[in-house]
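Sequence design from tokenized structure. All designs in this work follow the same two-part layout: the structure record, then the generated sequence. An example of the structure record is given first.
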């Protein structure tokens, strides 16, 4: 059997991090060139031909529109290339959920697209990057990997980008998956899927937008007033995601200000600052009367990403925005 050809897109992050040696703490994300990482991978005897293409060498806290557009273009070209069997994206973990979800929303599911990161820089003792990379290659080469949307491989688990969330700042087991659990367990030698592909051959859900509008996340805190909402509207926010308390709650004056924003045509999505759980419509907040949208299973970072894509595609009506987030 011939080895699969896998495109490896590099963006930097801790997986390409280099710093103060085996036991130091400080490091620079993206300190190692993608070519060096791929050359090291080639020594592991993986059953794949890896084709590196460096998009950026940055910490993912600095990722944004230029890198997303470049990643989307590279993925689109690779999906059309019959020589390429799958796509890996080496990415920092801080915003892997945002990049993964954006690509999940805007690319078809015809070939595996797998984000991979690491929590420890490449020169740290017990670095997790090469194992995660080897696992990700295993996923990208697997005949059952396509048709599941964009995935993230970390810590021997395969997560759907839509469900993945960074939940720990430094442990190697940093990601959680909600509302679905992991799609598979993976090691460099084995892969066990927990169900069949559910989006086989699906088209992109949304066209990739020509630009992304300003959508702000407003963090709720006890005792706050409505002035942060006014400030966000003052800097031209075209949508607002509330990282609310509990089921997407906020003090009454804040909810009233958000309702006024919604009435003026700025879509408002209520998400939660709580680690996990659905935000449903009309629980303590009367979304029907106030024109607000419930984020359902999406946390603030992913709710913002979806809202940006929706607004960019002209979808601002609360009912249509709610339909995209899931009814409820
Ligand atoms: N700040 C780093 C990044 O997101 C952290 C990591 O990759 O784990 O690029």
């Amino acid at each position: 059997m011939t080895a699969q050809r896998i495109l490896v897109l590099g963006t930097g992050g801790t997986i390409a991090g280099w710093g103060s040696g085996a036991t130091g703490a400080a490091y620079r994300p993206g300190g190692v060139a993608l070519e060096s990482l791929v050359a090291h991978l080639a020594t592991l005897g993986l059953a794949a031909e890896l084709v590196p293409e460096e998009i950026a060498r940055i910490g993912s806290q600095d990722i944004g529109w230029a890198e997303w557009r470049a990643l989307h273009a590279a993925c689109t070209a690779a999906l059309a290339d019959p020589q390429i069997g799958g796509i890996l994206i080496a990415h920092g973990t801080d915003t892997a959920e945002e990049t993964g979800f954006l690509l999940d929303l805007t690319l078809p599911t015809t070939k595996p697209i797998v984000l991979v990161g690491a929590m420890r820089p490449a020169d740290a003792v017990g670095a997790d990057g090469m194992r995660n990379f080897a696992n990700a290659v295993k996923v990208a080469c697997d005949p059952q990997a396509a048709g599941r949307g964009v995935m993230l491989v970390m810590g021997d688990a395969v997560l759907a980008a839509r469900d993945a969330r960074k939940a720990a700042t430094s442990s190697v087991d940093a990601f959680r998956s909600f509302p679905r659990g992991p799609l598979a367990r993976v090691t460099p030698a084995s892969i066990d899927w927990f169900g069949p592909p559910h989006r086989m051959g699906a088209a992109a859900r949304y066209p990739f937008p020509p630009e992304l509008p300003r959508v702000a996340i407003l963090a709720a805190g006890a005792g706050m007033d409505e002035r942060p909402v006014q400030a966000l509207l003052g800097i031209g926010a075209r949508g607002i995601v509330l990282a609310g308390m509990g089921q997407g709650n906020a003090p009454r004056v804040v909810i009233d200000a958000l309702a006024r924003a919604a009435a003026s045509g700025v879509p408002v999505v209520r998400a939660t600052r709580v680690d996990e759980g659905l935000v449903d419509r009309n629980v303590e907040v009367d979304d029907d009367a106030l024109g607000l949208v419930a984020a359902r299973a999406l946390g603030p970072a992913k709710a913002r990403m979806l809202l940006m894509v929706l607004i960019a595609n002209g979808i601002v009506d609360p009912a249509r925005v709610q339909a995209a987030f899931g009814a409820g």
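The first helix runs from residue 34 to 42. We note this feature because it recurs in several other targets discussed in the main text.
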